[in-house]
UniProtKB/TrEMBL annotation:
This is Quinolinate synthase. Its cofactor is [4Fe-4S] cluster. Keywords: 4Fe-4S, Iron, Iron-sulfur, Metal-binding, Methyltransferase, Pyridine nucleotide biosynthesis, Transferase. One of its GO terms (cellular component) is cytosol. Its EC number is 2.5.1.72. GO terms for molecular function: 4 iron, 4 sulfur cluster binding; metal ion binding; methyltransferase activity; quinolinate synthetase A activity. It comes from Anaeromyxobacter dehalogenans (strain ATCC BAA-258 / DSM 21875 / 2CP-1). Pathway: Cofactor biosynthesis; NAD(+) biosynthesis; quinolinate from iminoaspartate: step 1/1. It comes from the Bacteria. NCBIfam families: nadA, PRK09375.1-2, PRK09375.1-4. InterPro entries: NadA, NadA_sf. Signal peptide: none annotated. One of its GO terms (biological process) is 'de novo' NAD+ biosynthetic process from L-aspartate.
Length: 334
């Protein structure tokens, strides 16, 4: 399965925005970071939800699994992962011989934290004979106890590919319910976790924004609630959201129902289009505080001091790697 990754373009053509630092200081930090990365044999990977200046200084921007897979393939021996903890873990699991640095150890994930290895063990005991499908937004310990992982882009294909008719889907209930509707031939039991950023959005918020832009196309992430998905024109993963714009060549305005950080990449790729966050105000509901915990100073410190190195116990890494590799092997049309 080939996964596209959005490359970073010329920083002169796409200047840094959104930083509290003076432009000259930001430019100096960018230059210092790039020089340090070269000196330390490091690649900088940033998730679509990171702040604009972090996205701009990165070598590659994409979703968590795309970046983890890319981390395996790049020649650099060190990965600086600008995202949240489970993402850096996945990169380490797939590239065990490389050093993975997370610039801020406090960058966690409420969705990943909604299920632990112990709670998954209890859940499996309650539903014997079910295959466990775990969303990549989870800890390595939970992945290691799963039969297979999935992303928001391939979740339905993964569930459809399994020989088992009974599925335990964890941890995101909204994504799980969306998958269950797409694969009705399977019995899907859904864990009661969620991403608060997506779960807080309601269709009323979307309709209020749409009322002022009735011609707008609504693009929603499947972690959103069912009522939001029902009013969306397109439901897809973060990376697919960026490319979905080209499917509507006559549309000039898009309402985006996911974390607002993705708008930066959408504007860079489609500068002639208007992108509006579905809650109507950037930084209100569609805001993940964990995704905004890394800045340029932290990236520089990570490179200078080698902080903070992410490690995964070998037995846990082996189980998590198995679940991830099984997912990667599933054809999209399975």
């Amino acid at each position: 399965m080939t996964l596209p990754v959005v490359p970073i373009h010329d920083p002169v053509a796409h200047p840094v925005s959104g930083s509290d630092l003076p432009a000259a200081e930001v430019a100096g930090l960018e230059a210092e970071i790039r020089a340090l990365a070269k000196e330390k044999d490091a690649v900088i990977l940033a998730h679509n939800y990171q702040v604009p200046e972090v996205q701009n200084v990165a070598d590659h921007v994409g979703d968590s699994l795309q970046l983890a897979i890319l981390g395996q393939k790049v020649p650099q021996s060190t990965i600086v992962f600008c995202g949240v903890h489970f993402m850096a873990e996945s990169a380490k699991v797939l590239a065990p011989d490389k050093r993975v640095l997370l610039p801020n150890l406090s960058a966690g994930c409420s969705l990943a934290d909604s299920i632990t290895a112990e709670s998954l063990e209890d859940w499996k005991a309650r539903y014997p004979g079910h295959a466990v499908v775990t969303y990549v937004n989870s800890t390595a310990e939970v992945k290691a106890l799963s039969d297979i992982c999935c992303t928001s882009a391939n979740a339905a294909s993964v569930v459809r590919s399994l020989p088992q008719q009974k599925i335990l889907f964890t941890p995101d209930r909204n994504l799980g319910r969306w998958v269950a509707a797409k694969v009705p031939e399977k019995e899907v039991v859904v864990y009661d976790g969620c991403c608060p950023v997506h779960d807080v959005l309601r269709s009323a918020n979307v309709e209020k924004v749409r009322a002022s832009r009735p011609e707008a196309v609504v693009i929603a992430h499947p972690e959103c609630r069912a009522d939001v998905i029902d009013v969306a024109d397109v439901v897809c993963s973060t990376t697919a959201m960026i490319s979905a714009v080209e499917k509507f060549p006559s549309a000039r305005t898009f309402i985006v129902a996911t974390e607002h950080g993705i708008v930066h990449q959408m504007k860079k790729r489609w500068p002639d289009r208007e992108f509006i966050v579905a809650d109507g105000c950037i930084g209100c509901r569609m805001h993940c505080p964990y995704m905004k915990m890394i800045d340029l100073l932290m990236i520089r410190d990570a490179l200078v001091r080698g902080k903070h190195e992410v490690r995964v116990e070998p037995d846990v890494a082996a189980g998590a790697r198995r679940a991830l590799e099984r997912m990667i092997a599933v054809p999209r049309d399975a």
